[in-house]
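Supplementary Methods S3. Input chains for the assembly prediction are listed below.
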Amino acid sequence: MTLAKRIIPCLDVAGGRVVKGVNFQDLKDAGDPIELAAKYYREGADELTFLDISASVEERNTTLDIVRQTAEEVFIPLTVGGGIRTAEDVNTLLRAGADKVSINTAAILRPELINEISDRFGDQVLVLSVDARRAGTKSGYEVTTHGGRTGTGIDALAWVEEAITRGVGEILLNSMDADGTKAGYDLPMIEDVRAISSVPIIASGGAGSLGDFAPALESGADALLAASVFHFGTLTIGQVKAELSRSGYSVRR
Amino acid sequence: MIAILDYGSGNLHSAYRAFAQAHPDVIVTNDPDICSSADGLVVPGVGAYAACMDQLFAAGAEKIIANRVASARPLFGICVGMQIFFTEGKEKAATKGLGIWPGSVERLNSPILPHMGWNTVTSAPGSRLFSGVEDEHFYFVHSYGARVDVPNALNTICEYGGGFLAAVEAPHVVATQFHPEKSGAAGATLIRNWVDGWVAA
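Predicted structure tokens for the full assembly:
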């Protein structure tokens, strides 16, 4: 009995479509979210993540419908992030069929939001999404907002430790240095966050080829998130799991 | 009819959808009469043990559950819905549970918690619940578990920070620490096994 390493496709959703760009810019259409979610479920995804990058209230309501319809036919955990400001926003998403929510900027602006959500729904419902990059803070990593374009001056490792104390169930670690490069996950960053984290780590950013996944697990990730390589057909989930299995990792087949 | 007990916040939509695939008549409700008379009652549970018990009392659901146990009517607890069947939970402060089964629910002994993701189990010999899915993965999300076998029941074990009860099958009361409604095709089979083996019996 070994806990399987998870493969999690991430669907960035805006205006009812899946989009993908480099460092959240130059967005390309990547398909219908409900169809893609069902396809990834059939192909063996262990969880799915929707990141709502909508700019308007109307678009947000569209995303809620997408969550609702996906939960009708997809029987694996769904995480939804983007635009969550209050515990009531979380309740709305859970009621629509989400199992977990991820928060990012709103928690940086008001860290108490973490306590408010975890006290009401439990730590396990909350994923802290951290967009980190190398900078001159104490640990050498800084938290950014706006898809890596804006530095906050907050030390990323200190922020992870504070969030865990406040009550989060997982860390989604998105390396803004590796995001969109397809040059592999940010292994040093994963190792440094693993060293201070008592909750599972989902690594994100940089997956480009089959050989990129096992090293991220070796560096301490519990789950691996990827978007472009799956959306644009570079790799299938089955290929990634077969490769991880060959490398000696336990996966769900 | 299968009733899914709605006694707090959380994602009941998925549980509804998953059980509706195995039974034609499923309802999400907190109506005491429906919950008492249903052929099967599902007790979900998310969040902390004490919060779950508080919500259960607020909904008057502890009486419904006690009546079902007394009258030997099928009951299925999921995740914290399983944990509250035991004597007490030790999450944050010690909290009294429903005491259907003896034992306490304790923190798993692992450096990384929650135990989150897909794991396999050692299904109890002769298990009806795991028939056909003995070697499959199921989806777990928890930091606490029951560690001592329930007497006069089939006990299925999982290992993470020591062994804990992944599932218990008693003549009328069934429970899983994992989420069958989130465990894909394997979870769907397990739910069908419960419907066929307990509800329809």
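Chain A has a mean pLDDT of 94. The first strand of chain A starts at residue 6 and ends at 14.
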